[in-house]
Amino acid sequence: MLSYRHAFHAGNHADVLKHIVEVQLLRHLIQKDKPFWYIDTHAGAGCYALRGDYAAQNAEYENGIARLWLRDDLPAPMAEYISLVKRFNPEGRLEQYPGSPLIALEFMREQDRMWLFELHPTDSEILHENFSRYAAQSKIRAADGFLALKALLPPQPRRALVLIDPPYEDKQDYRRVPEMLREGLKRFASGVYAVWYPQLQRPESKQFPEQMKKIPVKSWLHVSLNVRAPGADGFGMHGSGMFVLNPPWMLHGVLQEIMPYLVKHMGQDEQAAFVLEQYEN
Fold first, then answer.
1. Is residue 92 a contact partner of residue 81, using CB atoms and an 8 Å limit?
2. Confidence at 55, pLDDT banded by 50, 70, 90
3. Under DSSP, is residue 223 helix (H, G, I), strand (E, B) or coil?
4. Integer Cα distance of 86 and 106 in angstroms
5. Distance CA 157, CA 180 (A)
6. Number of domains in the chain
7. CA dihedral 261, 20, 16, 52 (to 10 degrees)
8. Structure confidence by residue, pLDDT tens digits, 217-248
9. What's the pLDDT score for residue 45?
């Protein structure tokens, strides 16, 4: 399916959770001098104009990044994320929101490399434009990230962060993600795999966390943020979650600190809540 455009949802509560986790994972990887690869299976357009036609249509960012933009009491990990977004808005007005690839680029060193996949033809073209000046470090392909990942594993430096965040408009994505992870772990068991998923009323979404927990891996971390009660009509995303396979040891403590803050300041009703759990074999 090629109808999904992330520009409609840029900067929403799901992006906030996903990108806070991404920043922490990248921060961990650069603690060592050894190079790493960043692989994004569904990279989108890379950057989004929040006042543009797409993002402004639903203005989802108003209940996401905008709720944190001017706060002066942010926990340190969240302050780092907000500071990063502000670098893309030098005038101080919230107008641009960086997607996952641009956030990753802020952490890339000369020895690191990026592999970005985006199947939607329009977004893939925009992604190429946004990264044209970084051709030495980034490889961009108009391809299905589910299929493309297999050829990249194991990565040459034996260190990588793989971000997997399909739109899940096609319910087959709920099946393809665990299948891809099982195959990826066979080829690259020590990789860090970060998976985003939406919280919806559809059965596939509700069952997804338990499917992820069955993947044979040494350790995992699961965090989710509900911002409101599910809609009475059964439609709409009321929250989202992240699964990290082989998470760095410090991630659980960081999320313990920031998740209550996110619930307090991004929650839309009394049903706002978070889940944080981990497993280590």
1. no
2. low
3. strand
4. 12
5. 21
6. 1
7. 140
8. 999 999 999 999 998 776 789 999 999 999 99
9. 87
d(CA 139, CA 114): 6
Distance CA 46, CA 126 (A): 8
Contacts of 213 (CB under 8 A, 6+ apart): 220, 222, 279
Residue 241 lies inside a defined structural domain of this protein: yes
Within-domain flag for 138: yes
CA-angle at 122, arms to 121 and 125, nearest 5°: 85
Nearest-angstrom CA–CA distance, 162 and 114: 10
User: Which pLDDT score is estimated for 186?
Assistant: 96
Is the per-residue pLDDT at 82 higher than 80?
Answer: yes
40 catalytic, yes or no? Answer: no
Burial of 187 (C-beta count, 10 Å sphere; 0-12/13-18/19+): middle
At 95-134, the pLDDT tens digits run 999 999 999 999 999 999 999 999 988 888 998 888 888 8
The counts of H helices and E strands in the chain are 9, 10
CATH code of 182's domain: 3.40.50.150
The pTM of the whole model exceeds 0.90: yes
Six-digit token string for 58: 């639903």
Quick check: is 1 in a domain?
Answer: no
Closest-CA residue to 43 (of 91, 105, 133): 105
Query: What's the CA gap between 272 and 228, in Å, rounded?
Result: 5
Q: For residue 191, what are the domain limits? A: 6-280
Backbone angles phi, psi at 93, to 5 degrees: -95, 140
Distance CA 237, CA 277 (A): 21
CA distance 116 to 111: 17
From 165, 170, 173, 233, the catalytic residue: 165
